[in-house]
Amino acid sequence: MASAGIKILPCEFIDMEVRVDIYNEAFADDPALYCMRPRADPIVVKKNTLENFQKGYEGPGMKYFKAIDGDTGEIVGYSSWQYPHTPDPNEPDPETAIRNATQPPGSNDELIVEFLVKFLHARQKWHVPHLHYYLRLLVAHPGYQRRGIGTMLLEPVLEIIDEAKAKTFITASPVDVGLYLKYGWVEVDEIIIDYSRYGDEKDVKTAVLMRHPKGLRMSKNGTAKRQT
């Protein structure tokens, strides 16, 4: 059920700092977040994350939306989407950029590269930039989770996507998969990361999902069938 008093609006560039705070709080228990940079200065990590979010805000096809508590005016959730676009042919090779990037001191560089490259390969396998939509991230502040904010951030864009008769790519943790299955996504692949070398779980799964527009259902091999 959607939360009363919550408004959905486009994000502005100035909102990126709040977005970092919500991201860090929402994913505080995610092994990826704390295993990647366990000994790094939190101030440096936050600055690095903010710079990445600000750069992403201006990326091709990017659209950001925020959920605002109408009573307090605070941002309590957001989504970031990449709409179909033509990639810049002059952009550097993304895998090379990942491998050559300098991480903050105290980071587990090997894990960061493994994580980012595996997610990159999954995206390259399933996501066609000029045809598909990509839900990059959907996050609600921990104090506002299970209050329908995810639904409110999803539904307006899915209406646009269904009208365009386009597919949508996403990766999701097991705890979030249920919401996306409800809206027609189908798990087509998985990403496995071994965090046991860093003192955490051995094989953590992230689901790779694709969604056909409403009226079509998707099989696990990524093909579509007309719903009857």
Automatic annotation (TrEMBL):
Sequence ranges assigned to domain N-acetyltransferase in this UniProt record: 62-215
Gene3D superfamilies: 3.40.630.30
Alphabetized GO MF terms: acyltransferase activity, transferring groups other than amino-acyl groups
Cited SUPFAM superfamilies: Acyl-CoA N-acyltransferases (Nat)
Region of interest (Disordered), residue spans: 83-105
Top-level division of the source organism's lineage: Eukaryota
InterPro entries: Acyl_CoA_acyltransferase, GNAT_dom, Trichothecene_AcTrans
Pfam families: Acetyltransf_10
Protein name per its UniProtKB record: N-acetyltransferase domain-containing protein
Organism listed in the record: Hymenoscyphus albidus
Lineage: Eukaryota, Fungi, Dikarya, Ascomycota, Pezizomycotina
